[in-house]
Specification:
Blueprint lengths: L2 H4 L1 E4 L2 E7 L1 E4 L11 H14 L4 E3 L8 H10 L6 E6 L1 E5 L5 E5 L3 H15 L4 E7 L5 H17 L3 E8 L3 H9 L4 E5 L13 H8 L2 E5 L17 E2 L2 E2 L2 H16 L4 H7 L7 E7 L3 H8 L7 H8 L12
Parallel strand pairs: 3-4, 3-14, 4-5, 5-8, 8-9, 9-10, 10-11, 11-14
Antiparallel strand pairs: 1-2, 6-7, 12-13
């Protein structure tokens, strides 16, 4: 998946905001799974830039602001990138000075969160702001957070408004009932599972709302040519049934002279509503490996459907 294959898409509702076909997800460089250090984090962003990636996603939640600081520092002085961050988790200090995350989807919480993010990022404007994981906070997120962001968008303070979640049903509701420009769907439209086909993707297509697919490796179970026994799924140990399906997918990929990671990275882009994918990466080598993943043959998707490993409603070749 070379730089020439990355492509670029404009948000249908906000054509001034451009998304590269692959984005760098900032959770791993916020020390998601392990401390990686400043040099390794910087090398990761540098490798992404050198490989043609121009979309960078981060959040206060990732490393208690560490990811935002690292992404902002690495992009300083560069031009032509698109950056997204998120609101919904305020970072607050306790009496002993330790930072903690506090859920807040209020208008005031949005304003405070953005102000702090701009300081950490070293910016005066953010291209995309997502409401982050409002699963148990529909009322406040839809009535306060999204309208607050839309007002800031209309004032030119931010470029576009989105919602990011690890489910598709509520994302579809945000698309249908609010004025969002795009959504980030993590883990629910992947080679392993496609519940977004039943709700989010047709709704987004009908409303001209862009979709970014994240978590395309389902936390790691699709990230290796042959899934290991200790593979992660949804940030935890992969259940036996998930592991068995991932291995079956890997076997079919091998028959088509491709690999499970390549198919997982390319599959979400087969649907016309999906503008691009975000890959969480924590080293320069990982970036280079993911950018080198070749596009699988179109026949793979039909074969997976025929074998019952992929839902038949998928859109076909990218």
């Amino acid at each position: 998946m070379s730089a020439t294959a990355l492509g670029a898409e404009r948000l249908p509702r906000r054509p001034g905001v451009v998304i590269s076909g692959i984005g760098l997800g900032g959770a791993p460089i916020g020390d998601l799974y392990e401390p990686i250090g400043e040099d390794r984090a910087r090398a990761t962003v540098d490798a992404a830039w050198d490989g043609g990636i121009r979309y960078y996603d981060t959040a206060p939640h990732y490393g208690l602001g560490l990811s935002e600081r690292r992404v902002g520092a690495a992009l300083a002085g560069r031009r032509g990138w698109t950056l997204s961050t998120k609101v919904g988790r305020l970072l607050e200090r306790d009496d002993e000075g330790a930072l903690s995350r506090v859920r807040d989807y209020s208008r005031d919480g949005v304003a405070r969160s953005l102000e702090a993010s701009l300081l950490r990022l070293g910016l005066d404007r953010i291209d995309i702001v997502y409401v982050h994981d409002p699963d148990d906070h529909w009322e406040q997120a839809s009535a306060e957070a999204v309208p607050a962001l839309c007002a800031l968008r209309d004032q030119g303070v931010i470029g576009a408004v989105g919602v990011g979640m690890n489910q598709s049903a509520m994302l579809a509701r945000f698309v249908a009932e609010t004025d969002v420009d795009l959504v980030m769907c993590a883990g629910r439209f992947t080679l392993l599972e496609q519940p977004a086909l039943a709700d989010l993707l047709p709704t987004a297509a009908g409303r001209q709302v862009g979709v970014i697919a994240a978590g395309v490796f389902n936390s790691g179970v699709l990230a290796r040519v042959q899934p290991s026994q200790d593979a992660r799924y949804d940030y935890a140990q992969a259940p036996a049934a998930v592991l068995a399906k991932a291995r079956a997918l890997a076997d079919v990929c091998r028959e088509h002279d491709t690999t499970l990671p390549a198919a997982a990275a390319w599959f979400p882009r087969t649907h016309p509503a999906v503008l691009g994918v975000v890959l969480g990466m924590s080293s320069a080598e990982e970036v280079r490996q993911n950018l080198a993943l070749p596009r699988p043959p179109d026949e793979l998707w039909a074969d997976l459907v025929a074998r019952g490993l992929l839902l038949p409603q998928h859109a076909g070749a990218a």
